[in-house]
What we know:
5 domains; 5-stranded mixed sheet; 7-stranded parallel sheet; Beta Polymerase, domain 2; DNA polymerase, domain 1; alpha/beta
Amino acid sequence: MKNLEIEEILYEIADILEIQGVEFKPGTYRKAARNIETLGEDIREFYKKGKLKDIPGVGEHIAKKIDEIIETGKLDYLEKLRKEIPRHLSELLQIQSLGPKKAKILYDKLKIDSLAKLEKALEQHKIQSLEGFGEKSEQDILERLKLMKKGQERMLLGLALPIAKELKSKLEKLKQAKKIVIAGSLRRKKETIGDVDILAVSAHADEIMDYFTSMDDVSKVLAKGPTKSSVLLNSNLQVDLRIVKEDEFGAALQYFTGNKDHSIKTRLLANKLGYKLSEYGLFKGKKRIAGKTEQEIYKKLKMQCPEPEIRENTGEIEAALENKLQKLIPYNSIKGDFHTHSNYSDGSSTMKEISDAALNIGYEYICIADHSKSSRIAHGLDETKLLKKLDEIKELNKSYKKFKILKGAEVDILKNGELDYSDDILKKLDIVLASVHSSFKMPEKEMTERISAALSNKQVDILAHPTSRMFGQRPEINIDLEKIFEVCKKNKIYPEINSTYTRMDLKDTNIRKALEHGLKFCIGTDAHNANQLENIEIGVSQARRGWCGKKDIVNTSSLKELGKFFRKIS
Length: 570
């Protein structure tokens, strides 16, 4: 959105001017940037009507600069300013506790103009002797620098989610807490999380904040106020807690859930309808007409209420306005797990332990799909061990009445596109998952042909973790997913949505592509012990982010219905 681009440019101008010691102007640019940030309408509409100066804080000079940005996509004035300061000095402003003034002092006194030089000066304790800094300030900058470097890594959803849930549970136990809800990117179930936003309703905000900032797992209090506090947990996860009024709760939740683009677009929509939308409510003039719930806000905007996971301005607003959003798959609709591993290969639980855990969850079936023989690191099963395992499953199934263990295997797709077991062996299985576990760096054409060949085998049912990505370890393989999806459709094969938090494969954008091909999916935890069956929530959240409804996921089917989807299950 042009609003975002312009406000960022104005903020950067303000920072550079402040570094240069210019008075008054930085505040002017920041005021204009803040007002554009909360404008609630596309700034290009003001430009077209010649009304940029109607925006509070935008005078003649700033209006001309906005004209130039809209017309040319750049601003010569900013380019000129950038040349007037050391090339990397703006890097310092990435540190939260370093504003332009302190950055200028560091440059003037110690010639620090980059993060590398800052880190070296901190190691040598050169900063604490500067006027306006001190030992505590130096330590804070060091911690912020470390945080920033770690923050660039972000925390995986599967790690952040249980931490946030535990924290929410603690806060909910306080008698002063009326409502506690997780918002932000964690509510949208993004793959990685920068920080956690929590909203609360309470008539005793001071007591809530005292508890929040003094919890055992808080390593540092970053800020404490009457309505907002921020802490850093021992896990290096930052958590922000906001206390809001009950009649503003829905508006705040709407504001702090969608990403920036979704928020801007809903504000623009409100503006076009003659309203003003903010974190405090939906207003008609000075009168709040909605705000207690998200649903009433979206209803006033004449649209469906999009589920939190899809509030990212990727078409959900347009679909909601036309009443075309389908109901996303509910988290409690899964009937079984199609991808688990036992201690026959690299799992740590027995097949009975996994099955009992699945039964305890309320599942009707579980597929235990241990690795095939070529996965030596994963202690893959040769044909003899596999047949022994199948006999054990047959015996175990005798002890269950309304529950079934499905005979499965995760079979390696070899480099030449062949499968790791012969067809005679594969025919003995209820479900065959095919996957890549080697030669990850093959060129796209060869990799696509390799997987396509394997999927042409009539014994294959599921393509497990289709892109083989592993966060922080391995990128996606080079593959033409459009062609793979075509092959899946032709051969009635279901791409997997893998729930392992280090995989989350397929990712949401690829799920949407597969849906366009008319495909259904199987969600699998890839659990290697019984406790990991709970990770199904990650896979369901990924399916929801990919706009899947209940009908798009095979696992929502009962045991009796599985025969409609798998050739060898009657």
